[in-house]
Design a protein that fits this description.
Elements (H helix, E strand, L loop, with lengths): L1 H111 L1
């Protein structure tokens, strides 16, 4: 009677211990999975942040390039305008000079007669 009781007690205790161990293992596994999930989420967040930063940088670079292009275009336009102005000035001077030159030529021709 006594022996059976002790055996039953030991059996129950062992089973309980095993169950506890299993539960603890499960809990540990769950904790590990949770930790992994959290780490993964953090990594994902970091990746997203990095991507966002990269995108922002790219956009900034593009804007800078556009600005540079605009500046270059403006410079080119200015140069063209300057050239045009110079040409106009030269043309104006030549046109202004034309009557005098013609007069001179006429004078020379009339003088030679």
């Amino acid at each position: 009677m006594k022996a059976t009781r002790t055996t039953t007690v030991t059996m129950t205790t062992t089973t309980m211990l095993l169950l506890m161990a299993v539960v603890i293992m499960m809990m540990m596994m769950m904790m590990m999975i949770m930790m992994m999930m959290i780490i993964m989420l953090l990594l994902l967040m970091m990746m997203i942040m990095v991507m966002m930063v990269m995108l922002i940088l790219l956009l900034l670079l593009l804007l800078l390039l556009l600005l540079m292009m605009m500046m270059m275009m403006m410079m080119m336009m200015m140069m063209m305008m300057m050239m045009m102005m110079m040409m106009m000035m030269i043309m104006m001077t030549t046109t202004m000079m034309m009557p005098t030159t013609t007069m001179m030529m006429m004078m020379i021709i009339s003088g030679s007669y």
